[in-house]
Amino acid sequence: MEYLRRFATQVRTRLFVLLIIDNLVFLLDWWLVEHVFHLTGVELVAALVIVPALALTFIPWLSTRYLTQPTKLISEAILHLSPGSAEPVPAPNPASAHFGKELVASLIHDVYELATVADRYKSQSEHTDHLNAGYIASSLPVPLLILDSKQIVTFVNDCAASYLGKSAADLIGKDLYSVLDMLFTSDETLDKWLQDVRAHKATATNSWERVRLNPTDEHTLLLFDMAAYYNRDNPSGIETMLVLFDHTKAYSQDDQAVSFIALTVHELRTPLTLLRGYIEAFEEELGGKLDPQMKDFMFKMSATAQQLMAFVNNILNVARVDGDQLVLQLHEQHWDQVVRSAANGLALRAKVRGITLEYSIARDLPTVGADRVSIIEVINNLVDNAIKYSGKSSHIRITTKLNAEGLVETTVQDFGVGIPASAIPNLFTKFYRDHHNRAQIGGTGLGLYLCKAIVSAHGGNIWVTSKEGEGSTFGFTLIPYAQLTAEQKNGNTDIVRGAHGWIKNHSLYRR
Amino acid sequence: MQTTPGTNLGKKLLCIEDEHFIGELYTRALTNAGYDVTVEPDGQRGLALALTDEYDIILLDLMVPSLTGIEVLNKLRDPATAPHLHAKIIITTNLEQREEVRASIEQQADGYLVKAEITPRELVEFLSNLAA
C-alpha cells in the first residue's frame, strides 16, 4: 500500500509538471506572436491554431507514454508467463521503470510468485491423473466393498476377497447380507444407519467397532471395525463404501479372557453345587430334629450358599456382557410361572432377613419372549437389592401387570432406606454403589449393570423411582411373545439376541 | 415341595455321572422320591446299560470318561443302535456351552439342566413335571 501511495503521488506530480509545461508552451507562443513576430492574416491564424494543436497532440502522447510505462512493465511480466501468447515476450526489467520502481518490482514479483503456485497445482493434478482410481481401489491394502442402492455388492477389492475367503466373482452381484452376515454390538447396525441416512442425508460417514462374522466354510471367525461412506444418487452408482479393519486377533484375546473367567466360574460352581446339595440334604434329614437356633443357622447357611452362587453367576454374566458374548434365546414363557419360580428361590434369602415377599400378579398376562435363566437373574438381583436395602421394613412387593403400552411390566418395591436423587443416574453403571450405604451393605455393584444389559437385550426397559427414607421401586418391561413373533416373520421359534451382545445386521425387528 | 414317592415308585432311573458326590446327592433325593436309581460313572458302560432299555429316565452328564455325553446321546438317538429306546433323556451339565451347541443338544434330549442352577430337590420336581 505504501508503494501504491508513493506511486500515486509520483503520477500526480509528473502530471502537474506536464500540464505546467503545456501551459508555458501556450504562453510562449502567445508572447512570441505578440511581441517578437509581427504576423498578419493567415500567418497569425496558423501560429495561434497549428502550434497549440501540435502541442496538444505531442505533449499528451509523450506524457501517456511516460506515465503508463510502469503498467507496461507489469503487463509484460504477465504476458511473459502466459502460455497462450502468440510470440514470446521477454521478461521485463523492473529497474528500467522511470518512476514507481518499488511498486513495479513488488507487483512483478507477485506475478511470478502466483505463477509458481499455479504451476505447482498444475503439476500435481497432472501427476494424480496418472493414478487410476480403480487401481487404487483394487490394490488398497484393507478390505473394501462397494454397494449400490439396493445393497448389492458392485465391487470388492482383492484384499476383501481374500479376507472373506471368496473370489470377487462370488461376491459381486450378491446381496450384502448374503455375503457378510454381520453381527453388531448394539442396535445401531449398518442397516439401521443406511435407512436413516437414505431418508435424511446426501452424504454421510459412520464407523462401527467389534463387528463379528461367524465362521463359515470359507473363513474362520472374523472380528473387525468397519467404516462406511454413503453418497446418495452417486452418478457412478457407488452408494455405499465399506472399509473393514481386521482386529480378529486382538478381539479374540478379549474372548479368551472371558473363557478364563468362564473356567474359574465353572470351578467355583461345582463345589457350590455340592455344598447346596448337602445343605439341602441336611435340612430334609434334620429339619424336624433341630432346635430353633440350629434351624436358623441352617437357613442362613443355605441362603448364604445361594447368595454366593448368585454372585458367581453375576461375574460370569458381566464378563459375557463386557465381551459381547451374552447371547440370549428368547422363548415363549408364562411370566407368572417364571416370577413365582424365581421368587421361590428368593423366599429363603428374604426369610433369613425377616422379610416377606408379597406378590400381585395380574391375571391373563400374555406370554413373554424371555431367556428364562437370564431373566430370573434379573429378578434375583432386584429382589436381592431390595432385601439388602430394606432397612427395618419387613416386606417387599413384587407386582406384574400389563402396562398402557401393552408391555409386561414387573416392579420390585421395597420400603427401606431409598436412594438419594443424585445417585440415581449412575445406578445402572458397573461397580457403582451408593456412597451412603457402601459401608453398611455388601455388594459388588455388578447386579444392576447386569440387569440393564439383560433387560435391554430382551427389548425391554429398566428404571427406578426412589425416595430417601421411603424406599425404592425398580421396574422393567418385557415384550409379549406374540408381538415379538409378529415382528419376526421368518417363523423361527428362537429369537437370538445379544446383551449389548451381537445384533444381527438385518434386524429381526425391522421386517 | 416334597413329592410323594408313590407316583414315581418303581420307575427306573440311570444316572450317568462321574462326579461321585453329585451321584450320591442325586441318588439320595431320587431314591427318597421313589425312583430306583443306578449310578454309572463311565460313558461306555453307561451306554451299554442304557441300551438294555430297562430305564425310564436317563440323566446324562456331558463330561464323562471313555465316551462323552454327546456321543452317548447320539448313539441313543440313532435308530440303528437304539431303535426302540423308551427312556426320557435329561442332560445334566455344568459346562458353559456355546448357544448353538446347547440348542442342538436340547433338540435331541428331553431336558437340559445346568447342575449349578438346581438343587437335588429341584431335580426331583423337574422330573415329576416331565412325567406329568
Features:
heterodimer; A: 511 residues; alpha+beta; Beta-Lactamase; seven-stranded antiparallel beta sheet; elongated; disordered C terminus; B: alpha/beta; Rossmann fold; 6 helices; globular
**Going by CATH, what is the homologous superfamily of the largest domain in chain A?**
Histidine kinase-like ATPase, C-terminal domain
Task: Look at the structure and name the CATH superfamily of chain B.
Answer: Response regulator
Tell me roughly what share of residues is in helical segments of chain A: 40-55%
**How many helical elements of chain B?**
6
Most residues in contact, chain pair and counts: A-B, 22 and 19 residues
* Uncertain parts of chain A: 438-442, 499-511
**Averaged pLDDT of chain B, please?**
86
Rg for CA atoms of chain A: 44 Å
Structural class of chain B: alpha/beta
Q: What distance separates the N and C termini of chain A?
A: 69 Å
Radius of gyration of chain B: 14 Å
Topology of chain B as a string of helices (H) and strands (E): HEHEHEHEHEH
Number of spatially distinct domains of chain A: 3
From the N-terminal CA to the C-terminal CA of chain B, the straight-line distance is 16 Å
In short:
The complex is a heterodimer of chains A (511) and B (132). Chain A has 511 residues and is of the alpha+beta class.
Q: How are the elements arranged and paired?
A:
The complex is a heterodimer of chains A (511) and B (132).
Chain A: H1 2-36, H2 41-67, H3 69-81, H4 101-129, H5 133-139, E1 144-147, E2 153-156, H6 158-163, H7 168-171, H8 176-179, E3 182-184, H9 190-200, E4 203-213, E5 222-231, E6 240-246, H10 248-286, H11 292-322, E7 327-333, H12 335-352, E8 356-361, E9 368-370, H13 372-388, E10 395-402, E11 408-414, H14 435-438, H15 447-457, E12 462-467, E13 471-478, H16 481-487, E14 495-498, E15 503-504
Parallel strand pairs in A: 8-10
Antiparallel strand pairs in A: 1-2, 1-6, 3-4, 3-15, 4-5, 5-6, 7-9, 7-14, 10-11, 11-13, 12-13
Helix pairs in contact in A: 1-2, 3-4, 10-11, 11-15, 12-13, 13-15
Chain B: H1 5-8, E1 12-16, H2 20-32, E2 36-40, H3 43-51, E3 57-61, H4 69-76, E4 88-93, H5 99-108, E5 111-114, H6 120-131
Parallel strand pairs in B: 1-2, 1-3, 3-4, 4-5
